[in-house]
C-alpha cells in the first residue's frame, strides 16, 4: 500500500506543479500553445502505445472498446455541461475543459497503475516520465486560461490540487481493488481513459494550441508524440 501512495503522488503531482507554474509568471500565448501542442502529442502516444496496446493485451478488444465509448461519452457530456455554465457567465471554458479531461483521464489511468502495483508489475522510470510529459502541459495551459478568465489564484490552485488528490487516491483504490477485479476491468479502465482523452484532444487541447501557437502547433505535437512514444517503447 505504501508503494501505491508513493507512486500515486508522484504520478499526480505534475498536475499541481503545472498550476503553480502558471501562477509564478504570465506565459505568452505562443509559448502556451507550443506547450499544449507538445502535451497533445504526448497524450496521443500514450493512447496508442500504452492505453490501447495494454488494454488489448489484457482482455482483447471488447472491454477496451466499451471503455472507450463510455469515456468519450462521459467527457462529451461533462464538457457540454461546463460549456453551458460558462455561457451564462460569458467566459471561455477552455481551461475548465482541460481540467475535466485531466480528471477523466487521470482517475482510470492511475486506477490501472495501482492494480499493476498490487500485481507486482512495478513502475518503470519511462512510464513516470511519460505521465509528467503529458500532465504538466495540460495543467499549465488550463491554469493559465482560468487565470485569464478572472478565476482567483487560490481557486485555481484548489481546483488542480483537488484533481491531483483524486488521481492519487485512484492509485490507492486500484491497489485495494486488485484482488477483486480482473483483466477485463483493467482493459475497460484503459479504454475509458483513452476515450475521454481523444474527445478532449479534438474538442479542446489541439484547437486551443492551434489558436495560440498557429503554425508551430503541428511541429510541437509531432515532437511531443515522438518523445512520449520513445519513452513508452523504451519501457
Automatic annotation (TrEMBL):
Keywords recorded for this protein, A-Z: Membrane, Transmembrane, Transmembrane helix
Spans traversing the lipid bilayer: 6-24, 31-52, 64-82, 157-181, 187-204, 216-233
Coiled coil feature spans: none
Descriptive protein name: ZIP family zinc transporter
Organism: Microbacterium esteraromaticum
Amino acid at each position: 500500500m505504501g508503494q501505491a501512495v508513493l507512486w500515486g503522488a508522484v504520478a499526480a503531482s505534475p498536475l499541481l506543479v503545472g498550476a503553480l507554474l502558471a501562477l509564478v509568471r504570465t506565459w505568452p500565448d505562443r509559448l502556451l500553445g507550443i506547450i499544449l501542442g507538445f502535451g497533445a502529442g504526448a497524450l496521443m502516444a500514450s493512447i496508442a502505445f500504452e492505453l490501447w496496446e495494454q488494454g488489448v493485451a489484457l482482455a482483447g478488444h471488447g472491454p477496451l472498446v466499451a471503455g472507450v465509448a463510455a469515456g468519450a461519452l462521459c467527457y462529451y457530456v461533462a464538457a457540454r455541461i461546463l460549456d453551458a455554465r460558462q455561457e451564462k457567465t460569458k467566459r471561455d471554458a477552455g481551461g475548465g475543459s482541460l481540467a475535466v479531461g485531466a480528471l477523466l483521464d487521470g482517475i482510470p489511468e492511475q486506477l490501472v497503475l495501482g492494480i499493476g502495483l498490487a500485481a507486482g508489475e512495478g513502475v518503470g522510470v519511462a512510464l513516470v516520465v511519460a505521465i509528467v510529459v503529458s500532465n504538466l502541459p495540460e495543467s499549465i495551459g488550463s491554469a493559465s486560461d482560468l487565470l485569464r478568465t478572472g478565476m482567483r489564484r487560490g481557486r485555481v490552485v484548489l481546483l488542480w490540487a483537488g484533481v491531483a488528490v483524486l488521481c492519487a487516491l485512484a492509485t490507492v483504490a486500484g491497489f485495494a481493488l486488485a484482488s477483486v477485479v480482473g483483466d477485463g476491468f483493467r482493459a475497460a479502465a484503459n479504454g475509458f481513459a483513452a476515450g475521454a482523452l481523444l474527445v478532449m484532444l479534438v474538442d479542446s487541447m489541439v484547437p486551443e494550441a492551434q489558436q495560440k501557437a498557429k503554425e508551430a502547433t503541428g511541429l510541437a505535437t509531432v515532437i511531443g508524440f515522438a518523445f512520449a512514444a520513445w519513452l513508452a517503447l523504451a519501457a
